[in-house]
Amino acid sequence: MKHLNHTSIVTHLDDTRPDELAHYPVIYQQPIHWGEMDAFNHLNNVVYYRYAESARIGYLQALGMFDGNMVTVLAQSSCQYLRPVTYPDTLLLGVRCQRLGTTSIVMEYSYYSLAQAVIVATAEAVIVRLDSKAQDKQPWTHEERERLLALEATFGHTPQL
Questions:
Q1: Which of 118, 123, 136, 149 is the most buried (most CB within 10 A)?
Q2: Do the Cβ atoms of 44 and 38 come closer than 8 Å?
Q3: Is 59 helix (H, G, I), strand (E, B) or coil?
């Protein structure tokens, strides 16, 4: 498995994708930094949410939806910590759409530790699309829905509709 020393987004199947992330269309690669450790020398819980945010933006970029014209808001997020993560390590965050609603997306994340070779956390987030004034919900366009479903299908995943 290739280990990169910088943050990157991988959107294609290749030898760097562990089997546990095979059905995630976007893989966000994030090295762990020493300053992100808590008092017990574990990755601080709030850092997982920052990583999810970056991975979510990468997913929207892969769809061509993060161009400055779209407004989204985070409506809900949760994270389940399965194993402690310590420095040094690099996480691969698999990102996919769990459910595609009319104006929302439920995103699903799996955090894979390269050092431990296992999923160390899972998470979910609900994002809602808003109009350009960020006041009213706005439906995903037919084209956006088709792009999202096509990307997911490329990796053998079908979101709930």
A1: 123
A2: yes
A3: helix
